[in-house]
Model the fold of this input.
Amino acid sequence: MRKLLLKSLVQGPLTEPAPVPDDAALAELAQRLDGAARRRLGRSLAIREVDAGSCNACELEIHAINNVLYDLERFGLRFVASPRHADVLLITGPVTQNMRVALERTYAATPDPKWVVAVGNCARDGGVFAASSACVGGVSRVVPVDLHIAGCPPTPQALLGGLLALVEKVL
Ligand code: SF4
Done:
């Protein structure tokens, strides 16, 4: 036991180092997104995130958009607390039976025009949880989806690229 404790004290962390974002590429992507949102919507993009049953790894990447490394609120990307203030619903996970009604209500509470982005492989078709009886399936089984961002989980840069594609091509 003492050996194990000593080893854990001198041994470095076993986790992988955090990915270093390409600051220039990130800033360009975010500025394009902010510019496109202001051109098309007349304001910045308001996003309501909905976890419909994910394993939370997609949420970690979505949270990363707002952390000190990415800090994308400076470019006008805003997460809002209510669907009533949102332009975009960012939905993760397979939709579980327990979240189905909540997702339908959230969609109904979001004012038009609104767009739905399904985030992660589970949101497309249930992913690794598809066979579970607790799972309804992908997000499109419950609400209409405008864009899907693939990945398990998608990186913050992939999330930004997806939102930019939404604003430039769908809106
Ligand atoms: S796509 Fe991957 S990371 Fe996202 S909820 Fe599914 S299993 Fe988790």
Q: What stands out?
A: The CA atoms of residues 47 and 79 lie 5 Å apart. The first strand starts at residue 45 and ends at 51.
